[in-house]
Specification:
Elements (H helix, E strand, L loop, with lengths): L2 H12 L12 H6 L9 H4 L11 H10 L19 E5 L2 E2 L5 E4 L6 E4 L7 E9 L3 E11 L25 H18 L8 H6 L15 E7 L6 H7 L7 E5 L7 E3 L8 H13 L19 E10 L6 E9 L8 H7 L5 E8 L11 E7 L3 E5 L2 E5 L9 H15 L8 E5 L5 H7 L4 E6 L2 H13 L5 E5 L18 E4 L8 H10 L3 E6 L2 H13 L10 E9 L9 E8 L1
Parallel strand pairs: 4-6, 11-12, 16-17, 16-19, 17-18, 19-20
Antiparallel strand pairs: 1-5, 2-3, 3-4, 5-6, 7-8, 7-10, 8-9, 10-11, 12-13, 14-15, 20-22, 21-22
Helix pairs in contact: 5-14
Pfam families: tRNA_U5-meth_tr
InterPro entries: MeTrfase_TrmA_CS, NA-bd_OB-fold, SAM-dependent_MTases_sf, TRAM_dom, U5_MeTrfase_fam
Family: Belongs to the class I-like SAM-binding methyltransferase superfamily. RNA M5U methyltransferase family.
Length: 568
Amino acid sequence: MGAAATFGLRSINSNTWIHKFGARTAAASIRSRSFTIAASISPIEDTEDIQLNVISKEDVRETVRSTGSNNNDRSSKSYYPKRGQTLELVCESLAFKGKGVCKVADTGFVLMCDRALPGERFIGRVTRKKDNYAEVKKLKTITPHFDYVEAPCEYASHCGGCKTQNLSYEAQLKAKEQQVHDLVVHVGKFSDQDPEFAGAMKPIVPCDIQFHYRNKMEFSFGPKGWVPAEQLQENSTDECGYALGLHAPGFFDKVLNVNKCLLQSDSANEVLATVQECWRDPELGFSPWNVHSHSGFLKHLMLRSGRNIETGLPELMVNFVTSSDNPERLRPLVEKITTIPEVVSIVNNVNTSIGNTSVGEKEHTLYGKSTITETLRGLTFQISANSFFQTNTQQADILYKLIEDCAFLKGDGSEIVLDLFCGTGTIGLTLAQRVKHVYGFEVVAQAVSDARQNATLNCINNATFIEGDLNKVDATFASNLPKPDIVITDPNRPGMHIKLIKFLLKLRASRIIYVSCNPATCARDLNYLCYGVPEQNMEGHYRLSSLQPVDMFPHTPHIECVCLLELR
């Protein structure tokens, strides 16, 4: 395994007071629980894009208690492992964001470890301490996890994208389904003893295609490729030259060089390989962006896949993001890429800011069209370089069918739909032909423009899209619109602002369809809508009729949920 793992073992042998944690946990017990509600610690403490008030400190204490942890027992020597301490651990379950959960044998104190999987016994070093748990870095696997499979991707052990490729897909599904259930019970305060809730919780919908399902990938250029620790010691050097690939987990300034990604299409991989073959040529004079010195020309390579609506054949957009406005410099790369038949669009987004975003202030079309197309639920959508579109097209079709089923449309064209966080209008437009009118709200101006264009493209005249910040709603919000029969809300990871929840509870639409990409904030919002917020004198008015997890992204910890709430 390399010198790092050996050093970890020496630390254990030389430190007489180091304990073995979780060693007495029975294998059958671990296998029976693929997830623990310690996950709800992570959204608060370890997720960058969720505010600290997503779940209260009382919720943290309660969810830690639910794991059997007695973190107040400070008399136990093994209660609080020290930072830098090297431990032998057993992973019991998977938590939020796919981290492995281990516990102190005597006290149940929780330790979280990235890339540890249920049943795996390993050597780990404590890297970070929190009030209710600690974080551990895995140094060496002693015995492998349950449901082990060989990861087909050569980068699976180091790339931050597919953390569970070497866990069987059936085990991934089981863990995700259990995660949603436990979060809704412990954070949402829904009771397992309530037969109504038991009937509402549905089994997870699997993804039939586990590889090559992404229609969008973004790769970054870097001045020096990141080398994993074990490879670094084997090669005795960290110099691997310019890099084009994905960011190393936890680092904004380190790029793992990637020549092929199994999540994108074969044609997209062909483009990636073509760029990799030539962009480092000194004669071309390209330099990668350096996030520290704020110098360099090439920032990102974005690849988007779609389909020609007339032929059904795949089509590909290539987007070079550069730090300065000089599209002619890209001509040698364009000439190479255009030999690939699926490439129908090459654009250049110019982003002169020092930030790492791929959205440019200016865009040039270097070859072919400025947009590509895709079909979803019988509608056609134009996709530009920066427009939002569901990343897994085939699974999005299934997701939208579930949303349509939850709407229980009468079919007489009499209903009003309020589509919150509507993005480019995909959900609302798929329902528009069966309702009286769709009103969509979205904060991103370009997305609103795309939604209007998509409505025109599909000859839909009963959809209105409005630019507005749903985190800043006031008493006059939507007051000039007819009362909706159905509300669809699809917030980003932080969930809905309390002001919006207050608006919905006052509105009292017959049905709310909550589409979530974050089960932790989803559970919190379901609790508010069903049980209210007593400290703000808000009474809940809904019952949870259906909660359907959907696996949109195999081999990752991400989960989508479709929830139906009906007015009591």
